[in-house]
Amino acid sequence: MQSMQNMPKEVKAYKIGHSYDVRGLLISYQWVLQMAINEIWRNMSWVEKPWKNYYIVKKDDKAIKLLRMQGKEFRVNGKQIKVYYHAKRLIPEIPESNEFGKGLRNKLMAFWRHTGYAAHYVDSAIRMAYQVLRSWKANYVKGLRKRRKPIAKRLAARIKNTLFRVRGNKLVLTVIPRKLYLEFDFSKAWFLDRVKGWRVGEIILRKRDLIMMFTRERRSRDVGGVIGWDMNEYTMDGFSDTGKEKVSLRKLHWIHETYYEMRRKMQKLSRKKPKYAERKLERISERERNRTRDLVNKLTTMIARRYPNHIHVLEDLDKEGMYNRDKGHNRRISLQNWRAIVKALRYKVKVKEIDPRHTTRQCSRCGSLATIVDKRKVICKNCGLIIDRQVNAAINIYLSGRKLKHRKDLWETVIRPKLAPGDYCEKPAMR
Ligand SMILES: [Zn+2]
């Protein structure tokens, strides 16, 4: 992995259609990709590691008493109690040594040679196999995947730039060296002026189309500032070096609500007219996806334009996510929106995810956790600050993004001047 990791890159992907018969190549590719996955999977070592986990019980005095008696580790969190336990868990280690890589390539080549296709496809497949397994591992560690080998289902080949040349607005792909080349002309593509000065980094070949991934190094490497975002049901609340920011998510919510209703109506109908309802349902879901994607793109582009060269700090949802799943319809929508927004933001700005613990509860001025949190505000029992709940969280995320510790004088000099009078006040008794 060369510069990819450190140098932030911008990526754009566009599709062009083709009418070549590439089934043979795609099937062979899929097969060698699966073989690579199998080989790497077989050579993974599973290491037992200690694992701290928790489950949630409802808060009541009896439960607390019982937990104390049992000597269990727990933390009261609003109306819930988090009860911790220690377990051991097998964590996979993916073989990455050069030696293993060479052996893998030789093994795959022994089969691939008979197809006649260019040898570089094997390298692309190996790279792809590693990508698949790394992302599987990341999800497995988070508890989102089972210990089951990934299967290459899609008939698509991700192809490195060693297999194609771009000349002007033509892309020439090597299929069989010195024998078969495919030419893709994109001189009339609608996206041409959007990728001026970009280069084609990678392509994905599919049965009927080719996806071209254009990249360019992000123009300015220096990061101008930090903005912390607190995600809420209807708003994204930001706090940056220049002060507060609010982005409404109402429209996004409204889309989900509308289509949710439409789906429910269709589901009722499905008893009478199952075929019709099924077709309609599919179309409704597709339209919902498209509209959401468009809106998320619009929102994130606006954010990126307003805060270019900023590090955008957000809470890492998955840390809490797996335990909070399925808590009602609204929460599911919020989670879904959040994931989509973070994903889209990553393409446009630098994103940093932080541990979500305490961001709501902690007093942004003195850092105390002795607070009362209600729907709208946070009241600090330690320093007497009464502050808008969402503003408080955004400040905490901002401070964490700038690696600043909570300090009263810092709050007074840096934070307070950026707030509006209605955002906070002092608890009368504390004056
Ligand atoms: Zn305080």
| Each distinct ligand | zinc ion
The spatial strand order of the largest sheet comes to: 13-12-11-14-15
Structural class: alpha+beta
What's the helical proportion of residues?
25-40%
Total domain modules: 4
Distance between the termini: 57 Å
Mean pLDDT: 88
Shape: globular
Number of strands: 19
What is the fold's blueprint, element by element?
Blueprint: E1 9-17, H1 23-42, E2 45-58, H2 61-70, E3 73-77, E4 80-93, H3 98-112, H4 120-141, E5 156-159, E6 164-167, E7 170-176, E8 180-185, E9 199-206, E10 209-217, E11 225-231, E12 235-240, E13 243-248, H5 250-269, H6 274-306, E14 310-315, H7 317-324, H8 329-348, E15 350-354, E16 371-373, E17 377-380, E18 385-388, H9 389-401, H10 408-415, E19 424-426
Parallel strand pairs: 11-14, 14-15
Antiparallel strand pairs: 1-10, 2-4, 3-4, 5-9, 6-7, 7-8, 9-10, 11-12, 12-13, 16-17, 17-18, 18-19
Helix pairs in contact: 1-3, 1-4, 5-6, 6-8
Zinc ion (ZN) binds next to loops.
Describe this structure in words.
This protein is of the alpha+beta class and 431 residues long. Helix content is 39%, strand content 29%. It contains ten helices and 19 strands. It has helices at residues 23-42, 61-70, 98-112, 120-141, 250-269, 274-306, 317-324, 329-348, 389-401, 408-415, and strands at 9-17, 45-58, 73-77, 80-93, 156-159, 164-167, 170-176, 180-185, 199-206, 209-217, 225-231, 235-240, 243-248, 310-315, 350-354, 371-373, 377-380, 385-388, 424-426. The longest helix has 33 residues, at 274-306. The model is unreliable at 1-7 and 321-326 (pLDDT under 50). The structure holds zinc ion (ZN). The site of zinc ion has 8 residues, from loops.
